[in-house]
Amino acid sequence: MFLIRCPYCKESRDQNEFSPAGEAFIARPENPEALSDEEWADYVFYRTNHKGNHWEQWVHSSGCRKYFLVKRSTITHEVLEVATFEEINSENVS
Amino acid sequence: MQKKYSWYSLLKAGLANQDWDKAIPSSKPKSKYDVIIIGGGGHGLATAYYLAKECGITNVAVVEKGYIGGGNTGRNTTIIRSNYLRDEASSLYEHSMRLWEGLSEDLNFNVMFSQRGVYNLGHTLQDMRDIERRVNANVLNGVDAVVVDHKEIKEQIPIINTSKNVRYPIMGASFQARGGVARHDGVAWGFARAASNLGVDIIQNCEVVGIEVEDGRVKGVKTTQGDIMADRVGCVSAGHSSVIAKMAGLRLPVESHPLQAFVSEALKPILHTVVMSNAVHGYVSQSDKGDLVIGAGIDGYNSYAQRGSAKIVEHCAAAILELFPIFSRVRMNRQWGGIVDVCPDACPVISPTKVEGLYFNCGWGTGGFKATPGSGNVFAHTIAQDKQHDLAVPFHIDRFTTGALIDEHGAAGVAH
Q1: Model's pTM, two decimal places?
Q2: Do B254 and A49 touch (CB under 8 A)?
Q3: ipTM > 0.90 (yes/no)
């Protein structure tokens, strides 16, 4: 169990209020017709499944119902950073 | 070579209270093996055992970062069944079931396999339709299964709540009489001991920190006890499969999640069978020691932390109490989590990879224990012949590229 700070509600709330929504920064391919089967498989099914600090998407499902980004340790569950999609994207992520 | 266990050896050592052998010798790694198995859980040890026994490859090392029986093998709820819907899955799990049925004798180790039957409850009309479909599919595949109604369930399990005045009343169930439980860490020890007797080195406290790949071919592994060379490497590291894959520059279609379970204080015999419910999501059996063994679901977020959230425990406890109100004052002794690697179709990957000589057996998700002997058996043949065992063919990693997924997630629900 851990707390997550919702960047919209600006409050730290119990993780139970939120739902995980998968790894972050997996962009839908811009030109789907040009993709090979391998690239499609990678987009749809393959994941980094990183052990360590992991950027992922969460939704404040029992709150404002907005999606946002969380950098969380998959080893300790510690939440290190939260951000909106406007603030951080795959270009400027650290 | 360890001594054979028998009633005579037990009596002799028992009377003298000495001569208790170590179950397996402690091994240091040699510099080179024919095959290295990464991960000394049930599946990895079973792989090594069948490599030695059925494939004639005895120059094998199993490297385990912790101790034998200390990982997921000793953390699951020990349920064994083979009543899967899809042909691919049911053939594989039935193969495993048949191996379970002769396993104690085969290994010369009592794995306490107890075929006490498994009930999969249905709570809605749709549940019952799915159960009937699955039972029919099972029968066609030669897997024993019957549909039972709520009256029959009540007769068999008098303490179960079949009242209609609950949120999800029990309407019926599928019942597999050959299903049951086994002593989970005993399974790991049995395979370890039998493999070791056939010449396999079981190396504990030896963590793999790197995989040597040269020109697209595996050369060996780097470990905390030094480098070990091998022509073939089989990876059976469950929740950490992605971590090992990354060492070889590969990605996998799995994500790791915590799966929780808990056991109660020991009680007198009260539940003689295994009861599972997908709809309310909980499963329970009583161990030979007397404690209730209760399994919950996974947390939705990725984790390697071997602990889950309280929400899951609460949800599972609520489900179990609706089924068995009599358990409301039972005190829980221990609660824990294990890390499971889940595939998008809830079916395993038993497959070669893009790296020649490197094989993966992973993605068993929440239901790997029951498959232990079968998984090891088909994986051993896959490694030995550098060609997938017939039963493993549908579980190739390429199914995520071709789209030939095995829709067991939709078919069997979530509880494994």
Answers
A1: 0.96
A2: yes
A3: yes
